Amino acid sequence: MIYFVLVMILIFTEVYNVWRCVLLIEFKEVTKVFQGLNGSFNALDNVGLSVKKNEIFGLIGESGAGKSTLMRFINALEVPTRGHVIVDGIDVSTLGSRKLRVFQKDIGMIFQQFNLLNNKTVEENIRLPLELHKYEKPLSVEEVLSFVGLEDKRYAYPGQLSGGQKQRVGIARALITRPKILLCDEPTSALDERTTEEIIRVLKRAHQTFDVTIVIVTHELNVIKQLCDRAAVLEDGRIIDVISIENNAGETDGPVKSYYERVLEVLKDE
Ligand SMILES: Nc1ncnc2c1ncn2[C@@H]1O[C@H](COP(=O)(O)OP(=O)(O)OP(=O)(O)O)[C@@H](O)[C@H]1O
């Protein structure tokens, strides 16, 4: 009997350890209280959620639901009032400032408004993370520029680029450090439909090529459908569901449709 119990404990421990290795990001009973003009309020309320290694995970919900705050916990741009955020086995809130900077090196981020420096060239923008920290095996500027298809824009300034090109530069800047996690905050919200599709393709390729786990905040359900493996639905600071997305290959696998083809598709009544 004792032998049986020991074997069961061993099996349980092994299964538990394998499961822990699969998880990359864990939110444990996370609450965020902000002080507003009318007193304090819970932006996030007792959130529990896990993101697996190599997943593309979406955070969706209406404006003010708490999506960005939840994502900003992952790279400690925001700190929970209560609860724990565990990333790759590390409780982020326990890190001192030096260890936190090292930890943040593994996490890249892209933004809705691209956050490029207008007085620097594309190349200088892409190199910025390498000037802030030392990385063991960064990619080269040539590699990331070729990856996002902007070799010819190396010496251009952001003001000379379209929105989609600016976002590609943002992606190149995030990828040059070979991050384990890529956080995307409304990456396509400032872009039209066709450019959105192009950015989705680049993100999918980045996921496949660099084994990067992606967490994306967006209000665009089509982006979630085409890109994500799973998505959490937030409402008033609570997670009301986590949905597995059946087929995320979808439309982005065929050729990119021209703007005119899309106009006909939507406006022509046949
Ligand atoms: N620094 C802050 N101080 C006070 N309140 C804040 C702060 N940051 C966010 N909030 C509030 O917390 C709530 C959640 O904000 P959050 O930005 O996470 O929502 P969201 O779902 O990302 O919304 P959106 O889609 O509009 O960006 C909102 O009511 C917001 O006003």
Automatic annotation (TrEMBL):
It comes from Corticicoccus populi. SUPFAM superfamilies: P-loop containing nucleoside triphosphate hydrolases (SSF52540). Residues 25-261 form the ABC transporter domain. The lineage of its organism: Bacteria, Bacillati, Bacillota, Bacilli, Bacillales. This is Methionine ABC transporter ATP-binding protein. It holds the Pfam family ABC_tran. Keywords: Amino-acid transport, ATP-binding, Cell membrane, Membrane, Nucleotide-binding, Translocase, Transport. One of its GO terms (molecular function) is ATP binding.
